[in-house]
Amino acid sequence: MVKTLLKQTKEYKKYSLMTMGAAALEVVLEILIPLLMAGLIDNGIEAKDMNAVFIYGSIMFLFAIGTLSLGFLAGKFAAHASTGFASNLREAMYVNIQTFSFSNIDKYSTAGLVTRLTTDVTNVQMAYQMIIRTLIRAPMNLVCALFMAFMINARLSLIFVGAICFLVVVLGIIMFFAMRYFNQVFPKYDELNESVQENVVAIRVVKSFVREKYENEKFKNAAENINRLFIKAESVLSFNNPAMMLSVYTCILLLSWLGAKSIVGGTLTTGQLTSLFSYVMNIMMSLMMLSMVFVMITMSIASGKRIAEVINEKSDLVSPNNAYMEVKNGQIDFNHVNFSYKHGSGEPVLKDIDIHIQSGETIGIIGGTGSAKSSLVNLISRLYDVNEGSVLVGGKDVREYDLETLRDEVSVVLQKNVLFSGTILENLRWGNENATLEECQEACRLSCASEFVEQFPMGYETYIEQGGSNVSGGQKQRLCIARALLKKPKILILDDSTSAVDTATDASIQKSFEECIPETTKIIISQRISSVQNADRIIVLEDGQINGFDTHEHLLETNEIYKTIHETQIKGKEEA
């Protein structure tokens, strides 16, 4: 974990080292001030030498200014280093998430990834800032103050050693118990974010079903879980200050008593006792700062592990060495394919799929809910890998292609259509960032999107709200189809992506495909017979197996499942 996180300091190592240097010099000047104070008292005030008072006082003033200046610089450098480090962590996670396959993404919830990119990174950032500044300053201050105290009076300095040993034991016990709660609390943030995310995304559904009270209760429970764990952790940490104060006051009392006796006995001067009082505060404050650092580190360890987990996650789908960089055509072959989402375990989702599709064919896929229609087409663009058998595109195993090359030639319009905030033109150019306005207009004509886009006052410059909330479901589907067409793919997959358009528009879209992209292999998944009946051949899926693969006419004669679906839908139309 530590190695993974430290790699992200990169160009900010310079600021980190400058912070440490400034903090070290600050300690040196700070430690010398009590020594100068002793000289001022013994050689100036008690000797009634105003010249010595002026000299010692001037040097102390300059040292104090130096300490303040170095403290300011250390803070500034630490801010540069920690914010840059946090920025690199977020970027490293975000970039790696883009490489994830669907199976990698399945391991993490969206809310969990958001928490890692925000709350967890903030915790690690604060800990890093304290480490490069306070974790250098506090131990050095502690050691130097203890060394100076021993130089003044070794016997009295043993009081400090006893206090340090006591605090180390107490802080160790506190950290041990607090860590247990912090390890539990951050996963609870995922649940809280998930509750917020679901509520905001599905706010229309929540309001239409009058479920605000239920959602409020769910959020309240998630927040209370975090609150409960933080209270337990903070309750443990609350012993920190009493233990610290007990040590400080015990040291002061013992030092006052034994120091006074030493002064009376002539073995200690008043100035030296004053210096010892300063050093005891230095030592105790250093211990206080160290305890704060350990608290922050304790909190951030759990966050650091979660961040490192995402950065170190390797996609299980990678391009091979000497990968093919060109897809010959849209021919597709499934050779006795078996597939399950959990490789090596679990019930197979697809079983012994053996079908062969010629380039340029239009293939329909129909089947009941859960029959693995989407799973089948996901294998074509290698969003998942097969367990057994092989999937070939253009005569080559998909595992032998460069991933970008393959996916550029396989355009998929998924069940859940997504538009991004921006203009219609910007959304369309996701398919081809260099597409001209004329090419975008042609793609919209093929997908029957031009008829409504051109009616907008701003036309193709119309702004699409986040998630496409200002266009209808059917309009969103047609824009997504146009976006896919701009890739000019060799294979076009429509995964139930015309479900929100009427049958006439659906038929018009398919007619445009036949006329304008005849060489592109078209795979149409649908629940409607009318959407697939004009396909060259139709696959009937049942429980992840091929139940039929033939033309519409032959399936009506030979396939009971297809015949039943057809009769049910025809009867439903007649009754409607």
Short description:
The protein has 576 residues and is of the alpha/beta class. It is 64% helix and 10% strand. It contains 20 helices and twelve strands.
How would you explain this protein's 3D organization?
The protein is α/β, with parallel strands linked by helices and 576 residues long. 64% of the residues lie in helices and 10% in strands. The chain is built from 20 helices and twelve strands. The chain has helices spanning 2-6, 13-45, 50-99, 102-106, 110-152, 154-201, 203-208, 212-237, 240-265, 270-312, 373-378, 403-409, 424-428, 437-446, 450-453, 473-485, 503-516, 529-532, 552-558, 560-575, and strands at residues 332-339, 350-357, 362-367, 388-393, 396-397, 410-413, 422-423, 463-464, 491-495, 521-525, 537-542, 545-550. Helix 17 links the parallel strand 9 and strand 10 (521-525). Helix 2 (13-45) runs parallel beside helix 5 (110-152). The radius of gyration is 35 Å and the shape is elongated. The two termini are 62 Å apart. The relative contact order is 0.08. The mean pLDDT is 83.
Write the layout of secondary structure elements.
Elements lengths: L1 H5 L6 H33 L4 H50 L2 H5 L3 H43 L1 H48 L1 H6 L3 H26 L2 H26 L4 H43 L19 E8 L10 E8 L4 E6 L5 H6 L9 E6 L2 E2 L5 H7 E4 L8 E2 H5 L8 H10 L3 H4 L9 E2 L8 H13 L5 E5 L7 H14 L4 E5 L3 H4 L4 E6 L2 E6 L1 H7 L1 H16 L1
Parallel strand pairs: 3-10, 3-11, 6-9, 9-10
Antiparallel strand pairs: 1-2, 1-4, 4-5, 7-8, 11-12
Helix pairs in contact: 2-3, 2-5, 2-10, 3-5, 3-10, 5-6, 5-10, 6-8, 6-9, 6-10, 9-10, 14-16, 19-20
Summarize the main sheet: 6 strands, mixed
Determine the fraction of residues in helical runs and give it as a percent range: 55-70%
Query: What amount of the residues lies in strands?
Result: 5-15%
| Structure classification | alpha/beta
Overall pLDDT = 83
Beta strand count: 12
